[in-house]
């Protein structure tokens, strides 16, 4: 008998039809499309409009027309709705809609956690003007290049850049706000049409697999359509195991039948190519076309679904228009519109609201070795010795749940880890760190100090009856810390002090897992929506941000445990908008399969585009046993993930890099060493991301925004603006099809061979390497000595690899700081810009402050040397190289095939912290 | 970099470059005295990289810039990171470390003289005196252990060789005697065959008559037994469906070990079943060719077998669910699990109350052939009655000495019985002799090392107590993991490699969702046989580290052979690697 055992248990998770508010909002969209000449029943009262201090307010009324009246549910208890449009100082616009005088207060506290600082209104706007069509327009932005054009009836807001329509709210008329209402059980639903029944499904309670969501507040969902005119590709809204360019979920020929779902869940061996919800949620979407780019942030942490449809453009353009329909179960309708004008501007505007990535400790971008589980101190020592013996660098060794005393976090298994401090010191002597896992479920145990304290201080989540919620997770019966309670954050952070977390040292960092949160006995394996947080906030309203709040509290604990603040390192599985401020995330429990390996690329690109660049996928695949070829290919690609960690399930066979023998050990060693040689580039890119909000690994379109061929390309990517990487995701491949964008040259990272764009070319990808190319016009800083860990490289000299473009120009940067403290925020860092122009390479400082000598990092490290400079792509021979007036050793030659001249300046001995120039004669 | 034309060295101001050459004896830093001649410039002051790929000025050796692709120009700086640095370690033993470990801020223990850190950032004290002293002490201790161990080993060798000799002698003796034993068995077999032939002939001649009678006798019983089999099969199928359902629908997120183990038990059962079905298929095709009509007795046995098989399967599945019921996590409320337990509970009373077996007595007793039909009253004139048939047959059989086939007072042993007994005795002796020979052959053929040193370890059992488990091995026998119950980790299969220090034990109990357990026993010298550490480097693959005198070689004797021991230098690792290839 053949039993088909599918990986994910789909029936453990809700489909839209099993979710009341999803059904109701989708039914409303069906009603609209089935009704001829559908008009939104929402109207704005022109007389009510007021514009003051950058905030436009007005009264919205719900006046059903004949076409929409059948959709009206009886019993609404409200006095109309309010509209607010905030023009912000970063050129973003915030749009809020809510009931004027709600009978039940909606949760509206998300801004406290999500936004980095209070919003500041813009003063850059003109007066409200009414045009000949009766539409009101506000022009805003420094050049008044942006406009918001408002229609009263039916209500609609259109955003324009330089007069070009870029984003429209409620164009499809799907705005729907479920006002507080009295329960109405009179209607006999059986006599009503299916559509009508769907419009009222699950308003008052909802059963899923024997667990009833009591919905004491009744229906309070809301939805809105957001239209991207003449924009065919939209991106973002992670986390889904799906393509970079989002697929259609509505309309003829829709690629998915279900909407994209945002609801943080612990999904076992998740399905590939699916809009099912996963561990994290970021309700940020970017629309991009050749002519325009626009971003939307839907600030809501309740369960949210998004439908995507591609429709004919009303302008008659050949390009389709993307219409998206967003609906959330609770909270308020609160969204931000970013008009750029470029995609980089949009990410900068977005990150100025929710924060850009925190600059990590420098070790965190090295290689991480993890497994469930390194079972003892001896095991740890032996694995460490394996890396030494095989000369493979690594920075961090990880301990999963088995290291604890009975899954009580902040404790150690007394027999297996008798002396954790000694263990950490042993690794630290070689510059290495450790990470232990700390999850948000706290074992119910009257002897366990964490449980006792949280109980005494009433810091646990309650159930719907306001008694302590008790669920099941790794330790058995457990409770969950309520991070909505402001006292919980400080209390949790204090658990990381060295005198509380016995056996921890300053080289021990943290891994937050299971923080969706995962509750084995809960509905959809998470907390019930009617569970209750501090201040009577229902879990429903904050579900998607719970994990991020936990992540934030842990990061705070690691930051403040030292007398002088140190940067934290915390890896989290759940995430939300703003998680980038607390640390890294990874794509959860993937599988050792080529398919899971391949989907990691679009997943990581999408997460990065949504403002969270520090991410990775478990190299090798968590479940199962990878064949050595898959493992090796995964290492080769993983070396270009921002977060680079190998991990494996308890039931899988050991797979430390040397266990498969040759040629695999050497191939994996080479991949990891490549990562280490490029750490200066990675760290520089993290610094850029921390100020600009840009991703670190980028979709091709991000670097080639006007090349339409790149818009759906998600099997190759850019590291920063300089390196093109193509993971090899098929077994037995010897060649790969690589798309070389632009009209410039690309230099093979390993042997300098030249390819020219644009177009797809088949290039060799033998077992020992994957295609990596340096883009002409860039300069990459490297450190080439193979060391044991990133810490050991801090005194090593640099190599600059220059690829000049057809104009003979190139540029690049290097950022350095102490890699641990926050001194860089005060100015103690080195930021250089390198430029080649007219055969002269110059280095100049981009530091903001002048008094550089007073800083200890600058003092100690500015004399580090650039020892080697490689010029590639020169158009003519070089007879001499002059550094100042110093004659210099060089090697030169040219690649006959490409006619490219190459010059290597050896022993350049140029101090990294000083201005200098190198002239090619 | 693919540079197709020869690189031109354009500008070099050699005087500006200071080579980091040690001043005392012109030996570049990091180069062992024995390799000094490799680091001599030619007359023009040039020097060739050791791989011959390039020629550079000798002043570029150790100038902290990597010129040679093989890294040989920087033996004393971390510039290349690929070569090896020689620590002279005066007061201790010289050693090599990778040049990538120079000036990395770590005082590598291999360089006790601290010479690996020389850039002034990290000071590494010279601890060679202390390290050397400790090391010498350890070395002395090691030598003592090896000496004592080697003494014991020599005893092992003596024992092993004499025991092998004895075994061989014994084997020769047995093999010599085996011919007459074989002959006796063959002779008695011939006698028996003749008697049997006579019996067979008789049975053939009366076959139809007897079978008809037997058919009538057993028909009602077969029907009864068949009904019981069907009943049992119905219950079996109920359990199958229940477990299929559990397997497919249980919640995999819970990782409930009780549920997992029930399902893996069921999977093993299904696999076994599949194997059986395949075997049967093969047999079926054979049977079909013969087109055999089954006799009544065969059908009766078949019905009994079917009942028995079904009951056995039910018992197994019953036990699987019962174990789950005892241990499963009640908090999960997994519907599929609860459903299975419900089925169990409904069924349990009939199963567990043995007096009220759910199929009645398992087997209906098969009456003797001559028992007749109890309901039948034999009338002499009724020639067709069973009793009459048997009476007639008995008379016929008695005439040819086969009267024993029928019940009745026995006066003496029949011819066949005597022949059978004689044959049984002779063949048993033959079997014993063969077994003994095989056992001896196995012992003689087991590889106890080139000088038989390991023979002494045969059947020696040693154990190692860990936190949760006790690990045992009976050398050349079986390895086990013991806690509340014993788990086999494998039986001796072979030595690994040619060094006679690593044994493999394979074919142990299969892991849940994993391979069969196996053990690698790695032996080092010690004065007694003991396990010193046990680990599980990969799931279900165990590693025992054991000490035994059987691998002790006298170190001091080795040293004596090496007359230049005082001048010994560390072997250059790069070269060594090459040699190994």
Automatic annotation (TrEMBL), chain A:
<dbReference type="GO" id="GO:0005975">
    <property type="term" value="P:carbohydrate metabolic process"/>
</dbReference>
<dbReference type="InterPro" id="IPR011013">
    <property type="entry name" value="Gal_mutarotase_sf_dom"/>
</dbReference>
<dbReference type="InterPro" id="IPR013780">
    <property type="entry name" value="Glyco_hydro_b"/>
</dbReference>
<feature type="domain" description="Glycoside hydrolase family 31 N-terminal">
    <location>
        <begin position="82"/>
        <end position="307"/>
    </location>
</feature>
<dbReference type="Pfam" id="PF17137">
    <property type="entry name" value="DUF5110"/>
</dbReference>
<dbReference type="InterPro" id="IPR033403">
    <property type="entry name" value="DUF5110"/>
</dbReference>
<comment type="similarity">
    <text>Belongs to the glycosyl hydrolase 31 family.</text>
</comment>
<keyword id="KW-0378">Hydrolase</keyword>
<dbReference type="Pfam" id="PF21365">
    <property type="entry name" value="Glyco_hydro_31_3rd"/>
</dbReference>
<dbReference type="Pfam" id="PF13802">
    <property type="entry name" value="Gal_mutarotas_2"/>
</dbReference>
<protein>
    <recommendedName>
        <fullName>Glucosidase II subunit alpha</fullName>
    </recommendedName>
</protein>
<dbReference type="GO" id="GO:0090599">
    <property type="term" value="F:alpha-glucosidase activity"/>
</dbReference>
<feature type="domain" description="Glycoside hydrolase family 31 TIM barrel">
    <location>
        <begin position="358"/>
        <end position="685"/>
    </location>
</feature>
<dbReference type="InterPro" id="IPR017853">
    <property type="entry name" value="GH"/>
</dbReference>
<dbReference type="GO" id="GO:0017177">
    <property type="term" value="C:glucosidase II complex"/>
</dbReference>
<dbReference type="Pfam" id="PF01055">
    <property type="entry name" value="Glyco_hydro_31_2nd"/>
</dbReference>
<feature type="domain" description="Glycosyl hydrolase family 31 C-terminal">
    <location>
        <begin position="693"/>
        <end position="780"/>
    </location>
</feature>
<keyword id="KW-0326">Glycosidase</keyword>
<dbReference type="GO" id="GO:0006491">
    <property type="term" value="P:N-glycan processing"/>
</dbReference>
<dbReference type="InterPro" id="IPR048395">
    <property type="entry name" value="Glyco_hydro_31_C"/>
</dbReference>
<dbReference type="InterPro" id="IPR000322">
    <property type="entry name" value="Glyco_hydro_31_TIM"/>
</dbReference>
<keyword id="KW-0732">Signal</keyword>
UniProtKB/TrEMBL annotation, chain B:
<protein>
    <recommendedName>
        <fullName>Glucosidase 2 subunit beta</fullName>
    </recommendedName>
</protein>
<dbReference type="Pfam" id="PF12999">
    <property type="entry name" value="PRKCSH-like"/>
</dbReference>
<feature type="coiled-coil region">
    <location>
        <begin position="416"/>
        <end position="443"/>
    </location>
</feature>
<dbReference type="InterPro" id="IPR009011">
    <property type="entry name" value="Man6P_isomerase_rcpt-bd_dom_sf"/>
</dbReference>
<dbReference type="InterPro" id="IPR044865">
    <property type="entry name" value="MRH_dom"/>
</dbReference>
<dbReference type="Pfam" id="PF13015">
    <property type="entry name" value="PRKCSH_1"/>
</dbReference>
<keyword id="KW-0732">Signal</keyword>
<dbReference type="GO" id="GO:0017177">
    <property type="term" value="C:glucosidase II complex"/>
</dbReference>
<dbReference type="InterPro" id="IPR028146">
    <property type="entry name" value="PRKCSH_N"/>
</dbReference>
<feature type="domain" description="MRH">
    <location>
        <begin position="459"/>
        <end position="554"/>
    </location>
</feature>
<feature type="region of interest" description="Disordered">
    <location>
        <begin position="556"/>
        <end position="581"/>
    </location>
</feature>
<feature type="coiled-coil region">
    <location>
        <begin position="164"/>
        <end position="216"/>
    </location>
</feature>
<dbReference type="InterPro" id="IPR036607">
    <property type="entry name" value="PRKCSH"/>
</dbReference>
<feature type="signal peptide">
    <location>
        <begin position="1"/>
        <end position="19"/>
    </location>
</feature>
<keyword id="KW-1015">Disulfide bond</keyword>
<dbReference type="GO" id="GO:0006491">
    <property type="term" value="P:N-glycan processing"/>
</dbReference>
<dbReference type="InterPro" id="IPR039794">
    <property type="entry name" value="Gtb1-like"/>
</dbReference>
<feature type="coiled-coil region">
    <location>
        <begin position="274"/>
        <end position="306"/>
    </location>
</feature>
<dbReference type="InterPro" id="IPR036055">
    <property type="entry name" value="LDL_receptor-like_sf"/>
</dbReference>
<keyword id="KW-0175">Coiled coil</keyword>
<keyword id="KW-0256">Endoplasmic reticulum</keyword>
């Amino acid at each position: 008998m053949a039993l088909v055992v599918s990986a994910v248990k789909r029936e453990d998770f809700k489909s839209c039809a099993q979710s009341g508010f999803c059904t109701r909002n989708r039914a409303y969209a069906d009603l609209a499309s089935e009704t001829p000449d559908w008009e939104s029943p929402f109207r704005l009262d022109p007389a009510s409009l007021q514009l003051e201090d950058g905030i436009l307010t007005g009264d919205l009324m719900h006046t059903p027309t004949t076409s929409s009246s059948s959709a009206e549910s009886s019993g609404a208890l409200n006095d109309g709705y309010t509209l607010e449009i905030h023009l912000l100082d970063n050129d973003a616009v915030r749009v809020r809609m809510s009931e004027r005088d709600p009978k039940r207060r909606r949760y509206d506290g998300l801004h406290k956690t999500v936004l980095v600082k209070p919003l500041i209104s813009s003063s850059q706007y003109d007066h409200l003007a009414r045009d000949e069509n009766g539409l009101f327009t506000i022009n805003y932005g420094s050049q008044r290049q942006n406009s918001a054009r408002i229609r009263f009836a039916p209500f609609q807001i259109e955003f324009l850049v330089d007069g070009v329509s870029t984003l429209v709210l409620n164009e499809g008329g799907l705005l729907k706000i479920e006002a507080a209402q009295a329960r109405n059980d009179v209607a006999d639903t059986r006599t009503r049409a299916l559509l009508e029944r769907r419009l009222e499904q699950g308003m008052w309670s909802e059963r899923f697999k024997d667990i009833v969501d009591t919905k004491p507040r009744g229906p309070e969902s809301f939805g809105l359509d957001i239209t991207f005119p003449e924009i065919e590709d939209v991106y973002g809204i992670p986390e889904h195991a799906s393509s970079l360019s989002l697929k259609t979920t509505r309309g003829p020929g829709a690629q998915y039948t279900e909407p994209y779902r945002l609801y943080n869940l612990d999904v076992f061996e998740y399905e590939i190519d699916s809009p099912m919800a996963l561990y994290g949620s970021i309700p940020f979407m970017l629309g991009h076309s050749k002519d325009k780019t626009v971003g939307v942030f839907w600030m809501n942490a309740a369960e949210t679904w998004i439908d995507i449809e591609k429709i004919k453009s009303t302008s008659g353009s050949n390009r389709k228009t993307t219409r998206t329909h967003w609906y959330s179960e609770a909270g308020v309708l609160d969204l931000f519109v970013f008009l750029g004008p470029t995609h980089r501007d949009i990410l900068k505007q977005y990150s100025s609201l929710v924060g850009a990535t925190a600059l990590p400790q420098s070790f965190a971008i090295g290689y991480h070795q993890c497994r469930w589980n390194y079972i003892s101190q001896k095991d740890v020592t032996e694995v460490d010795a394996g890396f030494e013996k095989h000369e493979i660098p690594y920075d961090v060794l990880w301990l999963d749940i088995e290291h604890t005393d009975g899954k009580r976090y902040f404790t150690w298994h007394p027999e297996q880890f008798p002396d954790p401090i000694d263990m950490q010191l042993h690794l630290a002597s070689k510059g290495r760190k450790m990470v232990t896992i700390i999850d948000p479920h706290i074992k119910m145990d009257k002897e366990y100090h964490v449980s006792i304290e949280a109980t005494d201080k009433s810091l646990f989540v309650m159930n719907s009856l306001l008694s302590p919620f008790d669920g099941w997770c790794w330790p058995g019966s457990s409770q969950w810390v309520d991070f909505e309670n402001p006292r919980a954050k400080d209390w949790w952070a204090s658990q990381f002090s060295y005198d509380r977390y016995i056996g921890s040292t300053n080289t021990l960092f943290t891994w937050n897992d299971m923080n969706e949160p995962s509750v084995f006995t809960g509905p959809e394996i998470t907390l019930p929506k009617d569970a209750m947080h501090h201040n009577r906030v229902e879990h429903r309203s904050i579900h998607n941000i719970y994990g991020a709040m936990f992540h934030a509290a842990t990061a705070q604990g690691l930051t403040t445990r030292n007398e002088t603040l140190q940067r934290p390192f915390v890896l989290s599985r759940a995430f939300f908008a703003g998680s980038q401020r607390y640390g890294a995330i990874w794509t959860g429990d993937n599988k050792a399969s080529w398919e899971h390996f391949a989907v990691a690329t679009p997943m990581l690109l999408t997460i990065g585009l949504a403002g969270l660049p520090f991410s990775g996928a478990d190299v090798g695949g968590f479940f199962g046993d990878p064949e050595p070829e898959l493992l090796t290919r995964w290492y080769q690609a993983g070396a270009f993930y921002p977060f680079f960690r190998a991990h494996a399930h308890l039931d899988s066979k050991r797979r430390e890099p040397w266990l498969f023998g040759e040629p695999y050990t050497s191939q994996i060693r080479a991949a990891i060493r490549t990562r280490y040689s490029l750490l200066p580039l990675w760290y520089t890119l993290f610094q850029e991301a921390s100020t600009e909000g840009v991703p670190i690994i980028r979709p091709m379109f991000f670097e080639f925004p006007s090349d339409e061929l790149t818009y759906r390309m998600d099997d190759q990517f850019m590291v920063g603006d300089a390196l093109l990487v193509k993971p090899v995701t098929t077994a037995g491949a010897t060649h790969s099809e690589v798309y070389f964008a632009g009209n410039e040259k690309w230099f093979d990272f390993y042997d300098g061979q030249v390819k020219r764009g644009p177009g797809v070319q088949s290039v060799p990808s033998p077992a020992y390497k994957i295609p990596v190319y340096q883009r002409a016009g860039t300069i990459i800083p490297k450190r080439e000595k193979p060391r044991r860990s990133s810490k050991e490289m801090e005194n090593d000299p640099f190599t600059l690899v220059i690829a000049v473009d057809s104009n003979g120009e190139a540029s690049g940067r290097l950022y350095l700081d102490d890699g641990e403290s926050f001194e860089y925020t005060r100015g103690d860092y080195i930021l250089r810009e390198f430029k080649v122009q007219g055969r002269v390479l110059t280095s100049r400082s981009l530091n903001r402050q002048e008094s550089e000598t007073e800083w200890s990092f600058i003092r100690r490290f500015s004399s580090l040397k650039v020892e080697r400079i490689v010029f590639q792509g020169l158009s003519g021979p070089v007879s001499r190289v002059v550094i100042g007036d110093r004659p210099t050793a060089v090697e030169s030659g040219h690649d006959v095939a490409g006619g490219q001249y190459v010059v290597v300046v050896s022993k350049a001995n140029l101090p990294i912290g000083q201005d200098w120039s190198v002239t090619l004669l | 970099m693919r540079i197709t034309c020869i690189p031109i060295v354009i500008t070099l101001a050699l005087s500006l470059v200071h080579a980091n050459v040690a001043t005392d004896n012109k030996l570049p830093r990091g180069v062992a005295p024995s390799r000094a001649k490799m680091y001599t410039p030619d007359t023009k002051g040039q020097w060739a990289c050791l791989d011959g790929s390039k020629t550079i000025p000798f002043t570029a050796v150790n100038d902290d810039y990597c010129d040679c692709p093989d890294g040989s120009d920087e033996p004393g700086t971390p510039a290349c990171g690929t070569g090896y640095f020689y620590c002279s370690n005066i007061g201790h033993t010289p050693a090599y470390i990778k040049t990538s470990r120079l000036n990395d801020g770590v005082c590598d223990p291999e360089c006790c003289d601290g010479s690996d850190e020389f850039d002034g950032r990290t000071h590494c004290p010279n601890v060679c005196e202390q390290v050397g002293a400790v090391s010498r002490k350890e070395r002395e201790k090691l030598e003592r252990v090896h000496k004592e161990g080697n003494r014991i080993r020599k005893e092992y060798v003596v024992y092993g060789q004499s025991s092998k000799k004895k075994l061989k002698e014994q084997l020769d003796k047995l093999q010599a005697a085996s011919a007459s034993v074989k002959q006796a068995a063959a002779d008695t077999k011939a006698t028996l065959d003749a008697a049997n032939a006579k019996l067979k002939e008789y049975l053939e001649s009366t076959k139809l008559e007897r079978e008809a009678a037997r058919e009538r006798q057993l028909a009602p019983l077969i029907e009864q037994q068949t009904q019981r089999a069907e009943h049992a099969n119905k219950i079996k199928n109920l359990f199958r469906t229940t477990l299929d359902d559990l397997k497919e629908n249980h919640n995999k997120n819970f990782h409930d070990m009780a549920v997992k183990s029930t399902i893996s038990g069921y999977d093993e059962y299904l696999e076994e079943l599949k194997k059986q079905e395949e075997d049967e298929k093969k047999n079926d095709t054979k049977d079909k060719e013969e087109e055999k009509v089954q006799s009544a007795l065969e059908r009766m046995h078949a019905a009994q077998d079917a009942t028995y098989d079904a009951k056995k399967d039910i018992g197994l599945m019953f036990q699987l669910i019962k174990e789950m019921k005892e241990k499963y996590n009640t908090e999960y409320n997994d519907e599929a699990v609860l459903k299975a337990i419900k089925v169990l509970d409904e069924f349990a009373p009939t199963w567990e109350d043995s007096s009220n077996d759910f199929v009645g007595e398992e087997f209906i007793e098969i009456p003797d052939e001559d028992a007749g039909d109890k309901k039948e009253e034999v009338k002499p004139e009724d020639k067709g009655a069973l009793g009459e048939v048997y009476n007639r047959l008995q008379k016929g059989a008695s005439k040819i000495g086969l009267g024993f086939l029928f019940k009745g007072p026995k006066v003496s042993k029949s011819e066949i019985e005597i022949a059978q007994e004689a044959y049984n005795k002779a063949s048993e002796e033959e079997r014993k002799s063969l077994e003994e020979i095989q056992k001896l052959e196995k012992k003689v053929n087991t590889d106890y090392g080139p000088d038989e040193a390991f023979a002494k370890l045969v059947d020696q059992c040693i154990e190692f107590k860990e936190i949760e488990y006790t690990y045992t091995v009976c050398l050349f026998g079986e390895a086990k993991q013991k806690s509340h119950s014993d788990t086999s980790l494998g039986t001796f299969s072979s030595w690994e490699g040619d060094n006679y220090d690593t044994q493999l034990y394979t074919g142990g109990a299969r892991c849940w969702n994993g391979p069969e357990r196996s053990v690698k026993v790695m032996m080092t010298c010690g004065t007694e046989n003991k396990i010193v550490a046990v680990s599980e480097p990969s799931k279900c693959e165990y590693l025992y580290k054991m000490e035994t005198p059987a691998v002790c070689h006298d170190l001091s004797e080795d040293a004596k052979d090496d007359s230049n021991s005082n001048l010994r230098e560390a072997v250059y690792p790069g070269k060594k690697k090459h040699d190994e290839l």
